[in-house]
Amino acid sequence: MGKLFNYYDYVNHYGSRLFAIAAVDAMPKNYSQILFTGSIEECQLRLDPPGLEGSVEDLKRQIKVASKG
Question: Smallest Cα–Cα separation from 19: which of 3, 39, 5, 2?
């Protein structure tokens, strides 16, 4: 198995809850909890699931529609 990554959440200095991915051996000290550990591809799917409103795929679809019309 390749390098492992953590999908985790944290609260920034403005008080907003954010989600991020980092290598297991490069985790920041201010994270709240680890939500998932796996490959980078698995973590990216958890961070931005396909079909979710506001996902990368959704934004690409909206750009295609806007550029055609």
Answer: 5
